[in-house]
Amino acid sequence: MRCRLFEWSQVSTIMGEALIVKGIGYVKNRKTLTLIMIAVTLLTTYFVLHSFRVFDSNTFVAKNGVLSLQHWDWQDKKTIALDGEWDFYPNELIVPSPDEDVFERYKNNRQSIPVPAAWDRYRTENATPYGTGTYRLLIHVPKDDRYGVKLNTIRNANKVYVNGEELGSAGIPSKSTEEYRFDYKKYVVLENSKNKQIELVLLVANYDYAVGGIVNSLYFGPADQILAKQGREKFIEAFLIAGYFLFSFIYFTTYLQHKRKFRYELYFSLFSLAQAVHISTINERWIYLLFPELSPSSQLGIQAISLTLFVLFFLLFVYHFFNMSASKRIVTALSAILGFQALAVCVLNMTIDLMVKVPFPLIQLIVSGTTAIGYVYIFIMLLKAYKQKTDESDYVLIIVFAFAVYGILLAIVLLFDVDIEIPSLLLFLIMVMSLALLMSHRSQQAYNKVEELSNELLEFDRMKDEFLVKTSHELGTPLHGIMNLSQSLLEGEEGPLKRKQQESVILIHSVSRRLAGLVKELLFISKIKQGEVSFTSRPIEIRMIEEVLAEIAYVMPPAPSVQLINTIPENSPLVYTDEQKLKQVFFNLIYNAIKFTKQGTITISAQIIEEQMHISVEDTGPGIAVEYHDLIFTTFYQVESSRSRESEGLGLGLSITKKIVESAGGRIWVTSDIGKGSCFTFTIPLATNQQLFEHNEINNHEMNEQVTSAQMKNREMKQPQVILPTKVKGSKPYTILVVDDEPANLKVLINRLHSLQYSVIAVGSGQEALDIIETEKVDLIILDLMMPHMTGYEVCKTIRQDQDLVDLPIIILTAAGQLSDLVVSFQLGANDYLQKPVNLKELEMRIESLLLMKKSAQDALEHELSYFYTQITPHFLYNTLNSIIMLSWTDQQKTQTALEHLSTYFRGKLDYQKQRSLIPLEEEIQLVKAYLSIEQMRFEERLHIEYNIDETIQTYIPAMTLQPLVENAVCHGISKSKNGGTLRLTIEREQQHIQITIEDNGVGIPLDKQQELLRGRNERLGFTNPFRKLSLIKGTRFQMNSEVGKGTTIIIHMLEIKDNRQLF
To answer: Around Cβ 800, how many Cβ atoms within 10 Å?
Structure first.
């Protein structure tokens, strides 16, 4: 029947016997491999010879249409194959009768035909496989009993009569093609013998298969034995079908468990499923038993589709299992062809009944051609896989060898139409099991490798921890050395530093502190793993998060479309934990949420569940994939940058958070959906009544020693209110400005600073602080970060527009302890941070350090100005004395006057006991006038002087600044002009600055010379020296405009300095 073409896949199962060895052990050497291949060859040869009945010792063979079984011992041989010579009536469908011998009328048409065999050359002279015919066999049995006949492949429609009674049929055999209906089922008929004889008649018709007639043996025997034989074959097929379904389910589940990582598991599952369906459509046709409404045409369609899909998925399985063994293009092309073929057969069979309307030989040709090509390429892939010489090459060699044997068997099946169905199906299952074992072997190898790597990773992790501890200690020593050395340089212990040097040292100090913070985190990770981190737990209010949340959100503001929401109730009970550690947990989680949320909300909530506080930080960010939920709490692990706005940090935050929470007796977890956001939840134990009582007892004894934010609020009710602004005079020459909106905090800080003999000014807002700075001399500011109306950050930003880190140091008080790790000091404009509640001893040390830094910077500037002063003094004297000498030759009276002007310089400028870096502007003007008087005596009418000076201006400037510039204008500008010129000195106010203009109409300065002068590349001390001095003074700008032949104008913009110590 038609099923034979679609049973190709059964033959390929021969390769399975080669892999059965995997069930008992793996191939160890070439000798074993050779023995396996010999066994495959012998076993295959046996099946082939058995199919041709070479080993069949059956002496019961039909002759001339009669089979004599009088001497049959059914105890020894249960069933007999009805092989031999049958009577055959070509082109006839003779219906027998139980009452008469109807075959007598057709005796002239009777032929003897071998069974099993194709009827082609016996049916007609044209030897065509198409038409009809009647088979007849008389069986003589040893006794009358109930017997059975098992009918196998009869192509392609048949009807069975026993003793003249119709007992079964497959399809409708008819001489009319319109009435003809094919079917290829196998079935059993049972009947009693009469007079120790059974007449067996088969009416057969075939109009669509390439081979017709009885092509497989029919089996005869006692009814119970035939039924038992049928039952065994059905059981075997049911077992095979169930086995394939089981393989399909197991490997599909494995594929899902492996998170769709190994695609060959999916293809193996689909391959097993397709094979299960295919087996159900052949032999005993279980699909018909399950779905009896299916027509033979539909069953053939399912058979063709399942065969095509079986080859397709087998191809894909081999390709992905032995990857890099084939051309992707060829596999893709074959997959497309097979997939299209399966889809076409499915659609066409449902729409036009493909198996009836289309010539079956054409369908045979197409399906067999594509599947054959697929099998050939599978063989090629296996051969390439073997040539790769991997650790699986021995197994692949067996598969390759089996495939070669399969090719031979395929040719035998096609040429001789032999029957090896059940053995081949069993062997095919063995092959599939062997492939499964091969995959298991690979999985086991992978598992062993993973286990080995896991052990190595555990060792590496231990070594990493040890390395981090040692490295952190080794890094900590030089870092603290850098910090201490930079601190001592800032404080001037090694001598004063120039301003640029101080700014560089401040940066070094700030960066080294941040690095020290990272080292501290690394040490913390190691210590907390080893249980060496101590927790100072006490009852605390959970609402303290408000200040932490506000500071983090301000320093690192969320996106404009993100809203921060705190829903923790005000009356929440106290929790029992370490306050600083809890702040660190809050900081890490909120910072993480802000960093990854671009729009929506960040909500902090809390609820009480079973004597524990469950606190959640929920955001509407991109979410975290389920596979990362555990990994994100791993040290140094960071989710891919696609989740973050930027890549930053070391991946320590969540790891530290988890360890802190667990060490405090809680737990932490995350729930997240991609695209919807994440929710981090952790638990903290509530404070018990006993813990609350013990805490209150401790507070009663330590009330005067420890100041916490909560206690400061309680004290505020008992102490007099602070009247702001408050000024307290101290004996030390430094004034500290304290800015905080909490009067209790201000009171504590004022008392402490006053006890240290500092002058203190206290204000309650940022604007008041800015007003104080405008009117008072302030040396240092202590500033609360979070204040209403104007935050500490905004105050810093405004101050830094005019005064840098050296000019006016600022200490910021923050609730979030990790704030200094989040930003570099320069980003907020602060010199230092202190966490609240403030440790007053630490505050004292920070203040002393910053004031020493400020004093060191001031001394450095004074020394630098003194250097420039000493540099310019000889230059001035040389030029002045030269002028007087020239006058002495022409006018002694003028010489005397000039000496009087020079004596002014000697009295005021060469008194080293009174030498200062800054002098009043009027003294500098006196020196300028004295010099210009001497020069006027020298140049007479060639030099004209004009003064436009605002006498109300009272400021300080660096000594010997204007005189060298004036001298430069006279000597290098006006004196070189043929007709002389005019020098104009103007000093006037311009808004908040003083503008000094020195203008001459001399020869001017070329552009290239101007660039050299402004860049300090020219050796003219009269210009470069004042320029460098002025560049040391904050808020000073220097401008020069000159044109050759027209003169030069120098403009100086500077702030008004009212104190000769106000260098910053």
So the answer is: 17
Say which residue the tokens 């310089």 belong to. Answer: 905
Q: Domains of the chain by range and CATH? A: 84-216 (2.60.120.260), 233-440 (1.20.1070), 449-528 (1.10.287), 535-548+561-692 (3.30.565.10), 715-838 (3.40.50.2300), 867-1055 (3.30.565.10)
3-state SS, residue 349: helix
pLDDT grade for 598, boundaries at 50, 70 and 90: confident
Smallest CA-to-CA distance from 397 within 11, 48, 40, 42 is with 40
What secondary structure letter does DSSP report for 557?
P
Say which residues have a Cβ less than 8 Å from residue 817's Cβ, sequence separation at least 6. 580, 583, 584, 587, 835
Single-letter amino acid code for the residue at 364: Q
CB 762 within 8 A of CB 746: yes
Can you read off the two tokens belonging to residue 562? 């993100």
E strand map for 141-196:
146-151, 154-155, 157-162, 165-170, 187-192
Mention every residue, 6+ apart, whose C-beta is less than 8 A from residue 658.
633, 668
pLDDT tens for each residue of 111-131: 999 998 888 877 655 667 889
What is the spatial distance between Cα 777 and Cα 767, in angstroms, rounded to a whole number? 16
Sign of dihedral through CA atoms 66, 68, 74, 76? negative
Cα separation, 208 vs 132, in Å, equals 12
Q: What is the CA radius of gyration of the chain?
A: 53
* Residues whose CB falls within 8 Å of the CB of residue 1011, separated by 6 or more in sequence, listed in order: 1017
Q: ∠ CA 141-146-148 to the nearest 5 degrees?
A: 85
State the Cα–Cα distance between residues 957 and 921, nearest whole angstrom: 6
And the tokens for 48? 């082939």
- Are 85 and 64 a contacting pair, CB within 8 Å? yes
User: Which whole number is the average pLDDT over 692-706?
Assistant: 58
CA–CA distance, 18 with 400 (Å, rounded to integer): 10
CB atoms within 10 A of CB 401: 19
Per-residue DSSP letter, 181: B
Find all residues with CB under 8 Å of 389, minimum gap 6, and list them. none
From 698, 688, 450, 447, select the one nearest 576 (Cα to Cα). 688
Terminal-residue alpha carbon distance, the chain = 108
Helices (H), 530-652: 545-555, 579-596
Angle at 325 between CA 322 and CA 331, to 5 degrees: 95
Distance CA 1058, CA 1063 (A): 10
Question: Which DSSP symbol is given to 7?
Answer: G
Query: Is the distance from CB of 973 to CB of 965 less than 8 angstroms?
Result: no
d(CA 266, CA 845) in angstroms, rounded, equals 69
Predicted structure pTM score: 0.50
Q: What sign for the dihedral angle of Cα 79, 85, 87, 89?
A: positive
The 3-state DSSP class for residue 202 equals strand
The total number of residues written for the chain in this structure:
1064
In 3D, which of 794, 830, 825 has the Cα closest to residue 812? 830
DSSP reduced 3-state for 674: coil
Q: At what angle do helices 545-555 and 579-596 cross, to 10 degrees?
A: 40
| Residue at token pair 């940022």 | 766
813 residue type, one letter? L
**Listed range (99-108, 425-434, 877-886) with the worst mean pLDDT:** 425-434
Taking the CA atoms of residue 49, residue 51, residue 52 and residue 53 in that order, the dihedral angle to the nearest 10 degrees is 90
- Among 132-146, 571-585, 887-901, 963-977, the range of highest mean pLDDT: 132-146
348-363 residue pLDDT tens: 777 666 555 666 667 7
Residue 740, C-beta contacts closer than 8 angstroms, at least 6 positions apart = 746, 749, 762, 764, 782, 783, 784, 787, 813
* Axis crossing angle, helix 921-939 with helix 840-888, rounded to the nearest 10: 20
Pairwise CA distance, residues 769 & 759, whole Å? 15
| Residue 499 C-alpha from the chain's centroid | 46
